[in-house]
Design brief:
Its EC number is 2.7.13.3. It is an enzyme of class 2 (transferase). Keywords: 4Fe-4S, ATP-binding, Cytoplasm, Iron, Iron-sulfur, Kinase, Membrane, Metal-binding, Nucleotide-binding, Phosphoprotein, Transferase, Transmembrane, Transmembrane helix, Two-component regulatory system. It catalyses: ATP + protein L-histidine = ADP + protein N-phospho-L-histidine. This is Oxygen sensor histidine kinase NreB. This protein has 398 residues and is an alpha+beta fold. The protein folds into two domains: 157 residues, no CATH class; 128 residues, Histidine kinase-like ATPase, C-terminal domain (Heat Shock Protein 90, 2-Layer Sandwich), CATH 3.30.565.10. Helix content is 62%, strand content 9%. Strand 4 and strand 5 form a beta hairpin. Helix 2 crosses helix 3, helix 5 packs antiparallel against helix 6 and helix 5 runs parallel beside helix 7. The longest helix has 90 residues. The radius of gyration is 40 Å and the shape is rod-shaped.
Length: 398
Amino acid sequence: MTASASTLVRRPPRLGPRGRRWFDVLLVGVLVLPLLPLGYALGVVPVGLTLLELGPLLWRRSHPVVVFWAVTAAHALQVLLLDEPLLGQAAWPVAVYSVARYATAPHGWAALAVSAVASLTAARDWSAGSPEPLLTLLANAFFLGAIAATAWALGTLGRTREAYVDALVERSERVEKEAAQQVALAAADERARIAREMHDVVAHGLSVIVVQADGARYAARTDPDVAARTLETVAATGREALTEMRRMLGLLRAEDGDGSGPALRPQPGLGDLDALVAEARTAGAHVDARLPTPLDGRDVPDGVGLAAYRVVQEALTNVRKHAGPDPSVRVEVAVTGTGRDRAVELRVEDDGRGAAATDDGHGLGLLGMRERVGVHGGTIEAGPRPGGGFTVSARIPA
């Protein structure tokens, strides 16, 4: 009974292009910062190697594979020139993470394999001259390998998570578009159905006008009084049909297909509400109904009576679908006011599950009610009832 809305999957917060650029600059700046007080003591070669290792990280997002091999080459040069670690070693796990995060999976696996070889090479180089070279070699290799493997795992996790979130967002947007299309199609179908029903009303009015006009033409020769009364009927029927047409022009389609729809038949109105209530009682609902008398509904246009009938019908259908077993229903329909203030006021409420029930119709029943009432310039409210259940109330100018 309630309209369902698809929930969009929102992307997690991310840095924009400008933010990512400044983050990388800040990262390299923080890693290079210790060189300022230590550069003179370290010497030209260590400082130069450190800058060669850290500098490429500025482009780690846009060119992760190139940056990784540039860092690898700088580290290989370090192994040839020095036997001790440098501050620039921190560039290695960052480069491995960047390849696993921003490149493809094969490049990530290649970076992990190179990291394993590099860890053994660096551990062997740093273990030279140690009192226990084998133990030092194993410890250094394990430590360096663990850092590289952790960086690769984090990068791979970030890449797969981003791909998963992107897939969810794309699917959510697709579902949202499909839901909007379904609502639009439902509205179009409802307008077409109303147009077919109004065709019955207008066709009936025009047939009455034609018959009465022919009768008035013949009666004018023998009994002018009968002709005058007949012409009054023609005028009243014409005004009613014209009013219905004006109400529909702004909302309904200009054409209604090829006319191959169901056969035309008289449409229900206020006088058929008794049968509708009896049908609901037969289906098992406890219905307390207060309906207008035939005299009250005599001057209500057929289109308004049809709209009121359909609203009550849909409300009772929703009670059967959603209210649960043995619901109690109260139906009140009345014709109120006079002249321009004349209107059909209706209210259908139940004490069942109402809005708490699972909606399997995407709210199209309520959409149809609003379309019908809106055609006649009326208002409708539908929602949960205090204390449980559901209420539909409408006012349709007549």
